C-alpha cells in the first residue's frame, strides 16, 4: 500500500495540472493556440509563470494536454452510453453519439476550443495538425462502419456509407460552429436527427423517438 503521506503531493500536482488545463480550454477557445500566451494561462490558472513551466515547459505540451482532456471526457461519456461496445446496435450507437454531441453543449468552452483550434490546425505545421487529421479519419471510419451495419440490419442509407460518413462529420462541425454564434436558434440535436432520418429511410421508426 502507498503511504498516506505520499498521496498528498501527487494529488496536489494533479489538481494543479487539471486547473491549468481548464484555464487552457478558455484561453485557446477565445484566442486560439497562437493567440494565447503562457503568462495569460498562468494568470487564469492562479499560478506563477515559473510554476506553469514546471508542469508544462512548452505551449505545445499544454495543447496536447487539453486535447487529451477533451478526448478523456468524450470517451467517458461514450462508455457510459455503451457506444463503444462492439456488439451495440447501430441505431443505439447513433443515439449515443447524438447524446455526446448534446452533452458538448453543456461544455461550451470545449466546443469553442474544438472549433477554433481545429480551424487553425488545417496548417501542416500546427502542433495539432496530426491529431485532428487522425481524429477526422477515425470519425469517418466509425460512421461509415455504423451506416454499413445499419444496411446489414435492413436500414440501408440512401447514400454510400463512406460519403455519408464525411457528410455527417461535416454537418456536426458546422452545427457546432453555428450554435456558438446563435445558441437560442440553432437546434443541434433536432438537425442531426432529421438529417439521419432523411438519409436512412426507416430510421425514425427504429429509433422510436420524435424529431
Structure write-up:
The chain is mainly alpha-helical. Helices cover 75% and strands 0% of the residues. It has helices spanning 4-35, 38-45, 49-55, 59-80, 90-104, 108-120, 129-152, 161-181, 188-199, 203-207. Helix 5 (90-104) runs antiparallel to helix 9 and helix 6 crosses helix 8 (161-181).
Strand fraction? under 5%
| Gross geometry | elongated
Major sheet characteristics: none
End-to-end Cα distance: 53 Å
User: Percentage of helical residues?
Assistant: over 70%
Continuous helix count: 10
Element-level helix/strand string: HHHHHHHHHH
Strands, count:
0
Mean pLDDT equals 85
- Low-confidence regions: 1-5
Rg (CA only): 20 Å
Helix and strand content put the structural class at mainly alpha
Features:
single chain, 211 residues, mainly alpha, 10 helices, 75% helix, elongated, disordered N terminus
Amino acid at each position: 500500500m502507498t503511504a498516506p503521506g505520499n498521496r498528498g503531493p501527487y494529488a496536489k500536482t494533479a489538481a494543479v495540472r487539471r486547473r491549468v488545463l481548464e484555464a487552457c480550454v478558455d484561453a485557446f477557445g477565445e484566442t486560439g493556440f497562437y493567440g494565447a500566451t503562457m503568462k495569460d494561462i498562468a494568470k487564469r490558472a492562479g499560478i506563477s509563470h515559473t510554476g506553469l513551466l514546471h508542469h508544462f515547459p512548452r505551449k505545445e505540451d499544454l495543447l496536447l494536454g487539453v486535447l487529451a482532456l477533451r478526448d478523456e471526457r468524450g470517451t467517458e461519456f461514450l462508455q457510459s452510453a455503451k457506444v463503444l461496445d462492439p456488439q451495440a446496435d447501430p441505431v443505439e450507437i447513433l443515439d449515443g453519439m447524438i447524446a455526446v454531441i448534446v452533452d458538448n453543449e453543456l461544455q461550451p468552452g470545449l466546443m469553442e476550443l474544438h472549433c477554433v483550434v481545429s480551424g487553425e490546425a488545417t496548417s501542416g505545421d500546427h502542433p495539432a495538425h496530426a491529431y485532428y487529421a487522425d481524429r477526422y479519419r477515425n470519425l469517418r471510419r466509425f460512421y461509415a462502419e455504423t451506416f454499413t451495419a445499419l444496411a446489414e440490419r435492413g436500414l440501408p442509407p440512401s447514400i454510400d456509407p463512406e460519403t455519408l460518413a464525411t457528410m455527417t462529420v461535416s454537418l456536426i462541425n458546422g452545427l457546432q460552429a453555428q450554435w456558438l454564434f446563435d445558441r437560442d436558434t440553432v437546434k443541434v440535436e433536432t438537425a442531426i436527427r432529421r438529417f439521419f432520418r432523411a438519409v436512412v429511410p426507416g430510421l425514425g421508426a427504429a429509433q422510436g423517438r420524435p424529431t
